[in-house]
Design a protein that fits this description.
By secondary structure, this protein is α/β, with parallel strands linked by helices. It is built from eleven helices and ten strands. Helix 1 runs parallel beside helix 9 and helix 2 runs parallel beside helix 3. The longest helix has 15 residues. It is globular and about 55 Å long.
Length: 291
């Protein structure tokens, strides 16, 4: 059901639930973000805690410079590769056909795996816009990547990509939280069978002090973070909260035993301020780099 048509009650009841992608594969409805996890002991503790809490999707990126500790963490903890859903992203500096092919080879070595479950273009870059996507299509054809998608693409970027792409992205990972709910983009994605995935799902903590959300959380005997993540799930998004604190990793996973009603969903929707905590995609597209 689209956002315009209301809110579906068909929400997942456990963290191991999955969403079907347009390419026929399944993606977990919730994952664990690894941004800023930059040393082996912290990574190992976080991944073990997340695994024990039920997370099966782990999200990294070339730009995070931690693929070389996420891969060893998975090996050292003895986690089964077939039970994991690994995502990485192509950095702006290595976009273009040949550079992307080579860069992904490096990612696979650092992650100590022979395939990625999902590969995204981290940000749209005008100079290499079509060539980078062509590389992702080839990597999928070669079996090095199971599913391909994009990150930080606007409707305009997706429509431009459609003019030359052989296949379209199955995922669009974008900044999404109550102060930036990107309703029009989420509607577009849904209408075109693209799963919207929320990075910065808690607004880099800027949303957590909102008094209305605090009152709603108290009503449900939940934290503000849990209410926000539940709101995203009920909008049919995939969400990837991150934390280095074991208790918060566990808390974020504990959102499958309550639901928000239509009035509560609408109240959170109305908090939107179009307030970004990250970069504006169109500026990155034009300049070829984050700022």
């Amino acid at each position: 059901m689209s956002r315009r048509g209301g809110y579906t009650t068909m929400t997942p009841t456990e963290i191991t639930a999955t969403r079907k992608l347009a390419d026929g594969r399944q993606m977990p409805v919730m994952g664990f973000g690894t941004y800023l996890l930059n040393d082996q002991p912290t990574m190992n503790t976080a991944i073990q805690t997340a695994w024990d809490a039920g997370y099966r999707m782990f999200d990294t990126a070339m730009l995070y410079r931690n693929e070389d500790i996420l891969g060893p963490a998975i090996q050292q903890l003895g986690l089964p590769r077939e039970g994991l859903f690994l995502t990485s992203k192509v950095a702006e500096i290595v976009q273009g056909y040949d550079q992307t092919m080579k860069a992904v080879e490096g990612s696979l070595k650092r992650l100590q795996t022979d395939y990625l479950d999902l590969l995204l273009i981290h940000w749209p870059v005008r100079e290499h816009f079509f060539d980078t996507w062509r590389a992702l299509e080839q990597l999928k054809a070669d079996g090095q990547v199971k599913s391909i998608g994009v990150s930080n693409y606007t409707v305009a970027h997706l429509e431009l990509l459609a003019t030359k792409a052989k296949e379209m992205p199955v995922v669009n990972q974008v900044e999404y939280h109550p102060y930036l709910n990107q309703q029009a983009l989420a509607d577009y994605d849904q209408e075109h069978d693209i799963v919207t995935e929320a990075w910065s799902p808690l607004g880099r903590r800027v949303v957590l002090d909102d008094p209305m959300l605090a009152k709603m959380a108290a009503h449900h005997n939940k934290s503000v973070a849990q209410v926000i993540l539940r709101w995203e799930l009920q909008h049919q998004l995939v969400t990837i909260p991150k934390s280095t604190h074991p208790e918060r990793i566990q808390e974020n996973a504990n959102i499958f035993d309550f639901s928000l009603d239509i009035d509560e969903m609408t109240m959170i929707d109305l908090l939107n301020k179009n307030e970004r905590t990250g970069d504006e995609p169109e500026i990155v597209y034009e300049t070829g780099k984050q700022y």
